[in-house]
Amino acid sequence: MQTSRRQLPGLLGDARRWFDDALLAALTAQEAQPVSSTHLQLFSVLDDDGTTVSELARRMAVTRQTAHQAVHTLVAAGLLEQVPHPTSQRQRLIRRTAEGRKAHTRAEEILTDLEHTLAERIGAETVAQLRSVLEQPWGRPPEPQRPGE
Questions:
Q1: Which of 67, 80, 114, 126 gives the lowest tally of CB atoms within 10 Å of its CB?
Q2: Which residues fall within 8 angstroms of residue 56, CB to CB, at 6 or more apart?
């Protein structure tokens, strides 16, 4: 009997959760402000100069409402701020506050340590290969084939 292999998106999701869970645990141990996985994802896709809520939602693959709620939570926590958009009166940019930049730097340091831990567990060469493969450009997703083509 043949066992089915797990699909690659599930494996990538598990890997992402490993990093998120470890990062959240490390931040909690350091008594940092409590954040969720959604907040971590938002911070990871936020441009240094600021990003619109619509663009954050697109990058996070969530609804605009979900991104908006996460932004407001982090604004209330003092980690993000809303500033005028330089070219649009209707939009605002979301960017890190000074406290948010400190938190982001702390998270990046933890993630670097986690990558070292992973290298100890599965091998530095394997981690380097994984990074190399994931940094390759994948191109746009393929267009679906119409029936009969």
A1: 126
A2: 42, 45, 46, 67, 71, 94
Exposed/middle/buried for 92, CB within 10 Å: 0-12, 13-18, 19+? middle
Is residue 42 in some structural domain?
yes
Quote the pLDDT of residue 4: 78
In whole numbers, what is the pLDDT of the chain averaged over residues?
A: 92
Measuring CA to CA, how many Å separate 142 from each of 25, 55, 125, 138, 147?
A: 37, 22, 31, 10, 15
Q: Structurally, how many domains does the chain consist of?
A: 1
The confidence score (pLDDT) of residue 1 equals 55
Residue 144 lies in a domain: no
81: in domain: yes
Give φ, ψ of 97 to 5 degrees: -80, 180
Averaged pLDDT for residues 21-42: 90
Structural domain span for residue 117: 36-135
| pLDDT band at residue 34 using 50, 70 and 90 as cut-offs | confident
Residue 8 reports pLDDT greater than 80 = yes
51/20 Cα distance (integer angstroms): 22
Give residue-wise pLDDT tens across range 121-148. Answer: 999 999 999 999 999 999 998 998 887 7
